[in-house]
Amino acid sequence: MLNRFPDIHIYDLPFKNIICVKLDKSFLELLLKKLKSKYKKRRIIYNELNISLTYQSFSNYLNMSYRAFRSLDIMSKLCKLSEIPLEELEKNIIQYRTSRGRVTIVNPNLPIEVTPIFDMLIIHLMADGCCMRFKNKDTIYYCYRQFNEIFRNLFIKKAEFVFGNIYFPKKYFDKMRGVYLPEVPTLILLWYYNLKPEDFLTEKARIPAIFFSKSNDFLLATLLAFIIDEGNIDSSGICIRLKNKNLILDLKEVVKRIGYDSTVYRDKKMWVLHLQVKATRSIYENYLSLNTIYKEISIGQKEDKLKLIVDRENKEWKNLGEGMVKNKIIKLVKDGDKSIKELSTALNVTRQGIRYHINDLRKLNIIKTENVKKNYVCKLIKEEYFEEKKIGRSKPIGKTKKEILELLSKINLNTAEISNLIKIRPNNIRQHLWDLESENKIIRVGKDGKKIIWSVYS
C-alpha cells in the first residue's frame, strides 16, 4: 500500500550537519568494506570528503569499535563515495541526536511521515507551549507546558509516534510540568512549515495557511489539540478561550472547513470560540473514528465529557418529578457543602439544570452560595423539603425556549435582558437563541450597542 502522507527524509534536512547517528552494525560493516575496497587508504577518503573534521577524528569514524555517535553529514558523504543509496543509510539509523544532545531518539521512525499527529504537535506548541533557547546556548527546544499528567504523557506518545522512542536521561518533566523535545524534532517541526520561534508567541501565533487546505482528518486533529489545551466542555457545548483574536479566527476557519457551526465572541480579556451542542455529536463521532487509526490522538478525560453531552442529547429524559431534584440537593448539601459540579455529577443533571434548582432554593432562603476559588459552593441554611409529584416525561431545554418565545411575543429584547428575566447566564441563553433562530422562530431586528435585539419571526 502506498504511503498517502508526505515523507521527510533525514538526509535531506538543511541542518543535517548538527545531527549525529548510530548505525546498524551490519550496515556499517558493509559501508566500511566498500570504502576500503574502492579507496584502499583512509587518507584518500579523507581528502575526497573535504571536511573540517581532523584526520585523526575521521579515522576513528572508520573503526568498528568506535562507539560514539557519527556525523550524519559525513556518513551521507561516505555513502555517496561508496555508491550506497541514502535510503539504505536512513533505514539503518538506530539512534540520532545532536552532537552534544542528551535526549536521544531510539529506533527512529524514518522517513518521518507528516500525519495528523505531526500537525497536532505544532498546535500543542501554539496552544500550550513555546520554543525556547537555554542560556548561553544556540540550541532551540520545543517545550510543552502541561500540568495535567495524562495530557503530558499523551503528548510524549504523540512525539514518539512521529519520531520514534524518546530516551530522556531522567524524567525531569514530572516536577517541572514541561516536556522538552530534543532539538532535532523541534527543528523538523519548525522547518517543515517554515516557522520561527517568534511565530508561537501568545499574541502572534497563527495557524499555518497550508493547514486550511488539508483533509478533515488533519483539520479535526488541529481542533482536538486546542480542545485538549484550551477547551472547556459542558452542557452548553465546547468553548475554546484564547487571548489571540487572530488565532481564534483561524480556528473558526478550521471549524468551518470541517463543516461545524461556531460563534466567536469577547469574554472579558479572552476571545472565545463556541461550538454548540449540535456540533458536538459530529465532533465526537469523527473523533472516535480517527481514534481507531491513531490512539495517540486521545483527548483523555475530555472524551467522557463529550460522550456525556451526546448521551444526554440521545436519550428521552424522564423528569424525576416536581420537588424531587430539590429534595435530593438538600439531602446532599446537608451532609456537607457541595459545589455545582459535585451536585451535577452526583445527580447526573447538567450544571445548568442544577443552577436552575439552586436559584429557586436561594430565593426561598434554603440554600446560600459562596464563591470559593472560582467555584460556587452551596451551603444549607435550613432543612426544608418539598412535596414530590410525579409528572410523566419531558425533553431537555424545551421549557427555556418556550419562556423565550413568550417574552419575545410581547416585546423585543436584547440577549442580556432575556438573560435577566429568565435567570440564566447570557452564555447559556445564546445557545437557545441560536437554536430558535435556525428554526426560523426568532430573528435579529437590530442592535442595542453591541447587544443583539431579538423578536419573534412573523
Textual characterization of the structure:
By secondary structure, the chain is α+β, with helices and mostly antiparallel strands. Among the domains are: about 25-90; about 210-315, Homing endonucleases (Endonuclease I-creI, Roll); about 325-380, Arc Repressor Mutant, subunit A (Orthogonal Bundle), CATH 1.10.10.10; about 400-455, Winged helix-like DNA-binding domain superfamily/Winged helix DNA-binding domain (Arc Repressor Mutant, subunit A, Orthogonal Bundle). About 45% of the residues lie in helices and about 20% in strands. It has 19 helices and 20 strands. The protein has helices at about 25-40, 40-50, 55-60, 70-80, 85-90, 115-130, 150-165, 175, 185-190, 215-230, 245-260, 275-295, 300-315, 325-335, 340-345, 350-365, 400-410, 415-420, 425-440, and strands at about 5-10, 20-25, 70, 95-100, 105, 110-115, 130-135, 140-145, 165, 180, 230-235, 235-240, 260-265, 270-275, 340, 365-370, 375-380, 415, 440-450, 450-455. The strands form six sheets. The chain has a five-stranded antiparallel β-sheet. The chain has a four-stranded antiparallel β-sheet with strand order 11-12-14-13. Helix 6 runs parallel beside helix 10, helix 10 (about 215-230) packs across helix 11 (about 245-260) and helix 15 crosses helix 16 (about 350-365). The relative contact order is 0.07.
